[in-house]
Each structure stands twice: as structure tokens, then as C-alpha cells.
Amino acid sequence: MQPFKVRILGCGSALPTLKHFASSQVVEVRDKMFMIDCGEGTQIQLRRAQIHFNKIVSIFITHLHGDHCFGLIGLVSTLGMLGRTAPLHIYAPEALGQILRQQMDFFCNGLEYDVHFHGIDATAQAVIYEDKSVIVRSIPLNHRIPCCGYLFCEKPTLPHIRRDMIDFYNIPLCYINNIKCGADWITADGRTIKNEYLTTPADKPRSYAYCSDTKYMPRLYESLLGVDLLYHEATYCNCDEKRASLYYHSTAEQAATVALKANVGKLVLGHFSARYENEEILLKEAEKVFKNVELAREMAVFDI
User: Which of 31, 37, 67, 213 is catalytic?
Assistant: First the structure.
């Protein structure tokens, strides 16, 4: 099975702390690297994670609060200094386009690679990226400014070939792809060997959803049904639920409620408020609702 991994670079919220970096992640799907959010310190975390900067093919920004995008122009500049030539695609709410262009005109003259900005309607769920391996959809969230999450869905793969059957029937290698695509095999004496005897089912397509920042949305789960891994903000605990509502954030219990309703495989909590010295309180609150939950931490890697 090819890799599908989520690497946490930063999982703190807006106020800087010595414990957490601002929001940023790298999602690896079949050897492609996608970045979600790019807060301050992202480049340092890329170094620590030993991720080659130029392997990042696209960056997805959820919204225009600084802890999610202040590191973007610095990364764009560094990629130029590293001699990047491949295009970089940036997906974000429409308002970032003009800001990014102004910053690039001032700080990044002479780049030898193209930056393609793709404006997103944060109020609509839509396919915003697609290649042969993955589809990425936007997920409207409820924050103080236009904000969307992202859902990464692996495309189905072909069935697995049964090597023992291929050897037994002396099927030539040039015919393997035909069998993967559903063809039967006709033996030299005219017998038909059905495809289901020559293959085993393909791996189940995997999926990952990133939801940060958002006020609790009772129907958000409808966009996340059956997701293998869900990262959901848990800025506050229940004792600060009024504050969460005021600032359009979620509590750990609310994040767990979304995970439960969506029947996700695993929940990862993140975007922690600086007010909590011990985030175990968030974990314990979430576990009362949804058992398979873990706190995000810098440099953590989640295999899907």
C-alpha cells in the first residue's frame, strides 16, 4: 500500500507559546506532498521533519488569520532561493489573492518558478484539486471570516494480482494490466479463468479531513462521513464553551461529537488555546464522547 501520511508541523492557536507552533501540516499521498496552512515557523518545522521544501506541490490555506498564513510569503521566497522551477499552486479563500500578489511584487521579484493562485469560495463544498491519485474538496466552516476545511480522498486503485495464479497459468507480464482492469484469462486449451480467481480486491480508498477553525456545526458531520482520519480544532474545553462560541471556535467535546456522528476512524485534536498548560483536559473530555482520539503534537506522523 502506497503512503498516505499526515505530518503535524504546528498545532497551536493564535498566541505564540514555547510549546506549540502555529498551524501547519504536510499531507503525503502516494509520494505527493501537500501543505495545509502555513503559520509562522513552518519552515523551521519542515527542516526538523526532514521534508524537502521543493517536494511540496500545492499549499491549501484555510483562512486569512495570521496563525494560518503568516509563514506563506516566507516559504514562497525561500523556494525561490532554493532554485525551484516547478510551479507552486496555492489554494485559499479569494481575498488572499491580491494580498499575496502585493507581497510577491515587493519581496519576491525574479522568482524562477510560477506561483498559481486558486481562489476558493469558502461557502461552497466543491472539488478544488484533482490528479490521478487524489481528489481534494473544500468544506465550508463557520468562523469569523471566510474559512474552509479540506477533505483529501484517495482515488480507487486497481485490484491486486495473485502471483501464484499468474505463475500457475503462465500468464505473460504484458497481460497483467489487462487482468487488473477486469479481463479474464483464456488458457491454451480454451478454458476461461475468471478475473476473480486471478486477483484480490483493491485496497479501500483512504481519506483525511482537516477542519480548523470553526464554531461547532451540528451538520458538519454530513461532509465527513466515514473519513479515516479527522483533524478537528479543539481550542477550548467545556468550561470555556461560551468563549468558544464568542470567538467561533470549538470545544474538545464538540469536536468529538462531530467525529462520532460522522463515524470517522480516528480523531486528532489540535489548535490548542495557549490558556491550557496541560491539554490532557481536552483529551479526557473528547474521550467521553469518542474513544479513538489523540492529541496532535509537533512532529507527529499519522499513517492512514
Answer: 67
